[in-house]
Amino acid sequence: MLRINRQAHLAHESPRNRRLEAAQSIWMQQRPKLGQNFLVSPTAQAAIADALGDVSRRTVVEIGPGRGAITAILAARARRLVAIELDRNFAASLREQFAHRPSVEILEQTVLAADFAALRGAEEERLLVVGNLPYYITSDILLLLFRFHASIERAVVMVQREVAARVAAHPGSSDYGVLSATTQMYARVESLLTLPPEAFSPRPQVHSTVLRLTMAPRFDELQVAPDEFLAFVRTCFAQKRKMLSRNLRNAGFDAATISAALEGCEVSPNARAEEVDPSKMACLFRALAQR
């Protein structure tokens, strides 16, 4: 079942997994003491499962199944279901609950260590992903999904409402920032529904929003290399409330070069990064890279 907070427990032997475990432990220590909030609204559970579309011939990866309410819906629909659960007790309970379904696999691990390419049933298959993303590692999980975008067709994820607003924000909005730009360079974003605290037990202090991310990278369209362009975007937003030109000067570009690039890309010299859409940001990146 989807929930807002979950206990992390898993020991790994490799250095990379030990680092992931340590990071997860720090997150567990720093998170708010909200307890575990389970989605108990049958209507919301069904809506989230439905948002994935037809899964009868697909592999679905569920992040944080918890007690398995949505898992049960998907297990009856999907050709194959892989559920990634951090909590040892929940993982054991889920294995028992779905022992009669060979199409359901329970992985007891942090999602941050997941290799989504390896979870595919076939090399050409693209996964469907569903789950709740804990607030403190929402960005980390989104970046992980984007790293495996070639292996994922779409993801239906529940996040804190304020985070969803940033993910889905359009250029010109004060919510538009690095997270917005990065997400929208990898995926089309749809805001499906917002759930009040009453949809959970016990009730959290926040609203949650369900987003659908359909992977559709724009890097080739905009003629930019992903890593270099996203590093440039972070530079442009380095001091979000300052003008874009100031951030570019702080990054080492001279005033004349910046002025020429802004003019050539039809960007106001007084613009902030939040006001510049991805196509013009890509234009600036290409213009400045040439210089």
Walk me through the structure.
The structure is a single chain. By secondary structure, the chain is α/β, with parallel strands linked by helices. The chain folds into two domains: 15-217, Vaccinia Virus protein VP39 (Rossmann fold, 3-Layer(aba) Sandwich), CATH 3.40.50.150; 221-290, rRNA adenine dimethylase, C-terminal domain (Helicase, Ruva Protein, domain 3, Orthogonal Bundle). It is built from twelve helices and nine strands. It has helices at residues 15-30, 42-50, 69-75, 88-97, 138-147, 161-168, 178-186, 219-222, 226-236, 244-250, 255-264, 278-290; strands spanning 38-39, 59-63, 80-85, 104-108, 127-132, 152-160, 187-195, 200-201, 208-215. The chain has a seven-stranded mixed beta sheet with strand order 4-3-2-5-6-9-7, with helices on both faces. The protein has a two-stranded antiparallel sheet with strand order 1-8. Strand 3, helix 4 and strand 4 (104-108) form a beta-alpha-beta unit. The protein is elongated, with a radius of gyration of 21 Å.
> What's the architecture of the largest domain, going by CATH?
3-Layer(aba) Sandwich
The largest pleated sheet is described as: 7 strands, mixed
Helix content: 25-40%
Radius of gyration: 21 Å
Q: What percentage of the residues does DSSP assign to strands (E)?
A: 15-25%
Which strand order spans the largest sheet, edge to edge or round the barrel? 4-3-2-5-6-9-7
Uncertain segments are: 1-14, 22-35
Average pLDDT figure? 90
Q: What is the molecular shape?
A: elongated
Summing up helix and strand content along with how strands pair, one would put the structural category as: alpha/beta
CATH class annotation of the largest domain: Alpha Beta
What is the CATH topology of the largest domain? Rossmann fold
Give the SSE string: HEHEHEHEEHEHHEEEHHHHH
In CATH, what is the homologous superfamily of the largest domain? Vaccinia Virus protein VP39
Number of helices: 12
**Strand runs, count:** 9
Number of domains: 2
Distance between the termini: 52 Å
